[in-house]
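Long-time lurker, first post. I've been practising inverse folding by hand and with some scripts of my own, and I keep getting stuck on stretches where the structure tokens seem ambiguous. Below is the full token string for one chain I'm working on. Before anyone asks, I'm not after the true native sequence, just a reasonable design that respects the backbone. If someone could post their per-position residues I'd love to compare against what I wrote down in my notebook.
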């Protein structure tokens, strides 16, 4: 008998845990960890991706494990939705593990064997989250994922800023976990059955279903980085090692998207139109906020972190649009919107992992994270530069790469929406489409800044002359991710047809023939909108080749050299190049209400004039600073009752006993 899919997934989980245990056994053996264990983990990831891909179109199968508490065993199940996200997990873990084999050093602040253990426990926990079929197994796996990622974020734990970033991440992760736990409590409907099958059978009123949905939006939104629960993300990503940042952004954020989809479309048996409006609004505001703040960043990893917030906002807006269509009984449109959201989740995993790993290679080669101290690295690190260019063009949404396809598909779902019964929604949809286009345009602007400042121009620091290109393991990993960006962009029809089982499971309808074929993507018919990535690719290649041929044929070969225009400055230096702050200044000025601006302006009487502009996140001061102050005041008040004297504590006990007797009476 051949093993079923869920058994093979469990085998992959056990293999990752075994690799982690071997890391503990070889705690400080860097060569063993990097040359044996991380490549082995990559092999497990490839096997998991293959098994999960074959399971997308297969019937669901489940297993009950004899673990857990009495009468609360672990229920595990794999269906089309969990299989899709397992494919994403397996593919990303394979590439990132391969990169990690050449990335981690003995001076990371944590022994390499311990990093290996935490890393593979993180992978195993994410896999268990995706196959959990009851609330108990889900929460155990969810908390294991949070703890493992916390220890990975604080790898360089000797640095106080990194410890603070890890604490903030863990705090918001647990706040979100409380929301998820309360959501499951609502979904079981008083039956006491915490399996997902029991939740599907629970008959919830619209009011209680709404409570469950918004608890899920809150809980999973905290992990995904939806506004205003996003504040941990720009702190944790710069603090973590680059492979961990890639894994968190490329995969862990998608487990939150998985949980939201599982609750909204699978465990809840009804969808209300205004749920979709709220999710759509939160998603678009998150997307705009993320991309605007990304434009103002001068730290390359913090820039990518805000970019992740933007892309998560786009995915959540697609989910909101799918809920809206499903509530109005338009299953085909719901399937197209859901396909766009799933496709963008897959695309984001590829191009954001590629960019985070590229920044890791730059960081190791230069020991610099600040954009103001980089530049000209395309000459010193050509492999990283050219492969990062693929990810940059993909995240900027340029055809024929993968980022364009999902954003174009989502925009089609916005633009070709038929008249809906609600006039309010009819007014909202064009505004939402305009916001999506604005976010996509600003994302392209941000990526010009990111790539141009790091790789183009002249080096801004003398030590950049000693930068070396990535090693062979890192090059191979970057190449695989870049190839994924290209293939996902050129063959969207194949991907969309592969996603149809997920659409059938969640919204009851496939995209089907509306997806077109391998050559032409036409979600609403070729007479209304169509896109052929292969034709676009052929045209681009033809234009480049013809241009090169014309230049080669008619170029006279004579060269006249002259000094370039120096703008009145005869001594050119790298400091005269446009800076990261210069790139971000127009966006900061146009969208100034989004920022909390603090300026330090010089006066004519200053002996040493100083000009400083600090654009910070206003949500810190609107929500988190007041909450922190309130918690500090409460802690001081509670501390007053701790007098350290036994007589006072006995008095407290006596008063409590009298109060209980009075209540019983």
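-- Answer (accepted) --
I ran through it position by position. Result:
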């Amino acid at each position: 008998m051949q093993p079923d899919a869920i058994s093979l997934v469990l085998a992959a989980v056990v293999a990752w845990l075994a690799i982690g245990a071997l890391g503990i056994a070889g705690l400080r053996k860097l060569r063993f960890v990097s040359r044996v264990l991380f490549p082995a983990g990559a092999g497990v990831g490839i096997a998991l991706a293959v098994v999960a891909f074959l399971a997308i179109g297969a019937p669901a199968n489940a297993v009950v494990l004899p673990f857990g508490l009495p009468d609360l065993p672990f229920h595990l199940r794999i269906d089309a939705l969990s299989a899709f996200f397992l494919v994403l997990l397996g593919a990303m873990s394979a590439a990132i593990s391969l990169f990690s084999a050449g990335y981690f050093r003995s001076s990371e602040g944590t022994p390499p064997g311990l990093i290996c253990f935490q890393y593979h426990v993180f992978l195993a926990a994410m896999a268990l989250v995706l196959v959990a079929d009851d609330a108990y197994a889900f929460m155990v796996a969810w908390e294991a994922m949070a703890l493992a990622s916390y220890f990975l974020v604080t790898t360089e734990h000797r640095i106080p800023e990194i410890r603070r970033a890890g604490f903030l991440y863990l705090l918001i992760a647990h706040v979100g976990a409380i929301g998820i736990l309360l959501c499951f409590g609502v979904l079981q409907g008083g039956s006491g059955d915490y399996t997902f099958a029991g939740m599907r059978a629970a008959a919830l009123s619209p009011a209680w279903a709404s409570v469950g949905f918004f608890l899920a939006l809150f809980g999973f939104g905290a992990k995904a980085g939806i506004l205003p629960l996003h504040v941990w993300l720009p702190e944790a990503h710069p603090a973590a090692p680059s492979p961990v940042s890639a894994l968190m952004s490329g995969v862990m954020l998608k487990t939150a998207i998985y949980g939201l989809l599982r609750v909204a479309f699978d465990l809840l048996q009804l969808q209300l139109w205004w749920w979709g409006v709220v999710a759509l609004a939160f998603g678009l505001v998150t997307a705009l906020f993320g991309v605007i703040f990304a434009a103002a960043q001068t730290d390359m990893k913090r820039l990518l972190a805000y970019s992740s917030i933007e892309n998560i906002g786009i995915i959540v807006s697609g989910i909101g649009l799918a809920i809206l269509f499903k509530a109005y009984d338009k299953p085909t449109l719901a399937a197209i919107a859901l396909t766009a959201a799933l496709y963008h989740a897959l695309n984001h995993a590829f191009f954001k992992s590629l960019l985070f790993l590229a920044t890791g290679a730059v960081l190791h080669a230069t020991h610099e994270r600040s954009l103001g101290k980089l530049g000209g690295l395309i000459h010193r690190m050509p492999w990283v530069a050219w492969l990062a260019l693929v990810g940059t063009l993909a995240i900027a949404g340029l055809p024929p790469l993968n980022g364009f396809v999902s954003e174009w598909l989502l925009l089609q779902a916005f633009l070709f929406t038929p008249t809906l019964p609600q006039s309010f929604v009819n007014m909202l949809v064009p505004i939402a489409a305009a916001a999506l286009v604005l976010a996509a345009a600003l994302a392209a602007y941000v990526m010009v800044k990111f790539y141009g400042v790091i790789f183009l121009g002249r080096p801004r620091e003398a030590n950049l002359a000693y930068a070396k290109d990535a090693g062979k393991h890192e090059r191979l990993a970057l190449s695989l991710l870049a190839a994924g960006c290209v293939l996902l962009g050129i063959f969207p029809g194949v991907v969309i047809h592969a996603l149809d089982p997920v659409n059938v499971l969640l919204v009851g309808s496939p995209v089907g023939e509306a997806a077109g074929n391998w050559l032409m993507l036409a979600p609403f018919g070729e007479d209304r909108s169509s896109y052929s990535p292969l034709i676009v690719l052929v045209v681009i290649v033809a234009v480049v080749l013809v241009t090169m041929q014309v230049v080669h044929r008619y170029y006279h070969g004579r060269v006249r050299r002259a000094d370039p225009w120096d703008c009145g400055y005869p001594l050119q230096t790298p400091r005269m190049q446009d800076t990261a702050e210069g790139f971000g200044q127009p966006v900061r000025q146009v969208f100034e209400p989004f920022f909390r601006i603090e300026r330090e302006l010089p006066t004519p009487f200053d002996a040493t004039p100083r000009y400083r502009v600090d654009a910070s996140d206003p949500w810190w001061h609107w929500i988190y600073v007041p909450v922190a102050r309130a918690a500090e005041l409460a802690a001081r008040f509670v501390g007053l009752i701790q007098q350290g004297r036994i007589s006072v504590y006995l008095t407290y006990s006596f008063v409590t006993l009298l109060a209980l007797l009075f209540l019983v009476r």
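A couple of notes from the structure itself: The chain has a mean pLDDT of 87. The first strand starts at residue 61 and ends at 69. Happy to go over any region you disagree with.
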